[in-house]
Amino acid sequence: MLGWEYPPHVTGGLAIACQGLVRGLSSRGVEVTFVAPRAAAAARDDGGARVLGRSGEASAYARPADARPRSRLDAGPAYDGDLFAAVARYAERALALAGAERFDLVHAHDWTAWPAGLAVARAAGVPLVAHVHSLESDRSPRAVDARIAALEREALHAAARVVCVSAYTAGEVERRYGVPRARLAVLHNAVERGAPPPPPRTPDPRRPLVLFLGRVTDQKGPGVFLEAAARVLELAPDVRFALCGTGDRLAGAIERAAELGIARRVRFTGFLEREEVERMYRLADVFVLPSLSEPFGIAPLEAVARGVPVIVSRQSGVSEVLSGALKVDAWDVEGLADRILAVLRRPALRASLAARAARDLEQLSWEGRGERLEHLFEAVLA
User: Residue 193, Cβ neighbours under 10 Å: how many?
Assistant: First the structure.
């Protein structure tokens, strides 16, 4: 398995999804060797994962006690500024590592890993499964990079099967790249199993908090979030907003908050480490994902798993599996503001959303994703 990031190196949902799938497959008895550009390293003799990083530092992550095979994680050089050069070095490193391995199949996540996946699969004479978490057209709708689009097209047509994180994404792959529907499979992301979600708390009327958490790019809709915040504050001036994350639109978002006259009510945190993310979930009364184009979106699942009511755009893949969320079109600023106010003001609505979300989460485990992925691998190999 090849992926650009893996915990503890996390910049978005890709790392969390890769870890979840590795754990899910391992729980099924599938041996996984995960190759990342960089990773913390860990080794255990009882079937735990082994991660080899540049510095040789070690840290372990938990796997199910009954998992028999060993899953290994290896790492090559990290990204150092020139992304395309780093992708090429990663492919070279993965190919070198694979030369000492015997494996049945290559599974690669998104375009940064697909050149490595193509090289390794071709050298070993085994099938490639390409996993689409997002397309270049999702990440950069205003200015698609033709080089990335070309890499996407090559890998998607070379893959024996293309796994997509949502039906929405599968439709985009078919429409943009002409991949036949018969070669596409939808595998929604999941959330780490834990205790049942706590009941939603009653917002403090003096300082309720609305949370945006994600990359601050056009794709994620930070502008819509701020426009809706301005409308909410006209009716509920004590509401606070947190826009957490970084990206190419962060400076513009800060400027827009000032233009709207809401800068004092919006906290811009920048990038947050995992412990800080957990703290924001604990503080939040509503989580909002107003993405203009979102292949999936793991953060809303994390939010509902922590008892936080969620509002997502209908243009997000997570809306396909999360019935316990309010939904709104990404461009509907008034509709988003109305839903934020409804969640803050209506205890019965919060309770209803929480109950439905808890049922949703029961169907969305990484163990279940691993089982489905194992069956897909078996079908490819057959």
Answer: 13
pLDDT of 358: 85
Compute the Cα dihedral for 312, 313, 316, 319 and give only its sign. positive
The dihedral region occupied by 158, where left means phi > 0, alpha psi between -120 and 50, and beta the remainder, is alpha
Three-state SS string across 129-188, please? EEEECCCHHHHCCCCCCHHHHHHHHHHHHHCCEEEECCHHHHHHHHHHHCCCHHHEEECC
State the pLDDT at residue 81.
59
pLDDT at 43: 33
> Which residue's structure tokens are 């890998």?
155
Q: Is the sign of the CA dihedral 367, 368, 374, 376 positive or negative?
A: negative
Residue 155 sits in the same domain as residue 70: yes
* Whole-prediction pTM: 0.81
The total domain count for the chain is 2
Instruction: Provide the CATH number for the domain around residue 267.
Output: 3.40.50.2000
Shared-domain flag, residues 178 and 226: no
Whether 186 and 217 map to the same domain: the answer is: no
pLDDT number for residue 194: 66
In degrees, to the nearest 5, what angle opens at C-alpha 299 toward C-alphas 295 and 304?
120
Model pLDDT, residue 71: 52
Residue 323: inside a domain, yes or no? Answer: yes
Query: Which range of residues forms the domain containing residue 315?
Result: 209-362
Q: Mean pLDDT per 10-residue run, the chain (382 residues)?
A: 85 86 90 77 36 33 34 48 89 88 94 97 97 91 90 97 96 96 95 73 84 91 97 96 94 97 96 91 94 88 91 91 92 97 94 88 90 97 96
Q: In whole angstroms, how large is the CA radius of gyration of the chain? A: 21
Handedness of CA 142, 250, 275, 288 (dihedral sign): negative
DSSP string spanning 246-313? -STTHHHHHHHHHHTT-GGGEEEEES--HHHHHHHHHH-SEEEE--SSBS--SHHHHHHHTT--EEEE
Contact 109, 131 (CB under 8 A): yes
